[in-house]
Design a protein that fits this description.
Layout (H helix, E strand, L loop, with lengths): L2 E6 L3 H11 L5 E7 L2 H11 L3 E4 L8 H11 L4 E6 L4 H10 L3 E4 L4 H12 L4 E2 L1 H13 L8 H4 L2 H11 L4 H8 L3 H15 L4 H10 L6
Parallel strand pairs: 1-2, 1-3, 3-4, 4-5, 5-6
Helix pairs in contact: 2-3, 3-4, 8-10, 8-11, 9-10
Length: 215
């Protein structure tokens, strides 16, 4: 039985490389590619792939928020995170968003195939390179609650913050999210209030530091 895969990464060289490697397996079909999170969500709704290989740091809508939207709309779709990030916050946020696997970008391709096979069996895959660190942190700090953008802001507020930090103005954001300008302004005020930040420069620095955007 063929497994259909959608590749989501903002770097064409990464998408091309993954497509080339995956095409060597007759049981796998790459049905589409996306360079940002919002396009990924749209293509998943159109193509209904079995698996999405998802980068975290993508423009317009990052991989975590894209995963959250995909799982909400298409719960049967599996997501494998493929990222440069190995910070426990990103790993936790991806799995909370509904991802079934997490790989680092520098992993061997055979590990990618292992992850695909694992999640096809309805299991969760976490790269051995980072699983030890995650488990050790959980054992040593089982009740630790790190304050991060994912715990402080709502999903919609994170979307607005990412778009603001990437230079889009209020009118543009309203069009992208299909909401009123007043709604976007209200989100911006609430974001600044929650974070205790009062300038766009500091908001942008915060968004980059928290992994919402790679700018």
């Amino acid at each position: 039985m063929t497994t259909s895969i959608l590749i989501a990464d903002d770097h064409k060289i990464v998408r091309d490389g993954l497509r080339t490697m995956l095409s060597k397996y007759p049981e796998i079909e790459v049905v589409g590619e996306a360079e940002d999170g919002r396009t990924t969500v749209r293509l998943v709704n159109q193509l209904s792939p079995d698996i999405v290989i998802m980068d975290i740091a993508m423009p317009d809508l990052n991989g975590i928020e894209a995963t959250r939207q995909i799982i909400a709309e298409k719960p049967g779709v599996k997501v494998i995170a493929l990222s440069m990030h190995s910070d426990k916050r990103y790993i936790s946020a991806m799995f909370k968003a509904g991802a079934s696997g997490f790989l680092q970008k520098h992993c061997a391709f055979q590990e990618m195939m292992t992850a695909i096979q694992t999640i096809k069996e309805d299991k969760t895959y976490l790269s051995p390179a980072i699983s030890g660190t995650v488990v050790e942190d959980f054992i040593r700090h089982p009740e630790k609650a790190e304050s991060s953008v994912f715990s402080v802001l709502s999903s919609r507020e994170r979307e607005v913050l990412q778009l603001l930090s990437e230079g889009q103005n209020t009118k543009e954001i309203a069009a992208v999210l299909n909401v009123s300008i007043k709604t976007v302004e209200a989100h911006r005020v609430k974001i600044m209030s929650k974070l205790g930040i009062h300038s766009m420069a500091e908001l942008t620095k915060y968004a980059v530091r928290e992994g919402l955007t790679s700018l």
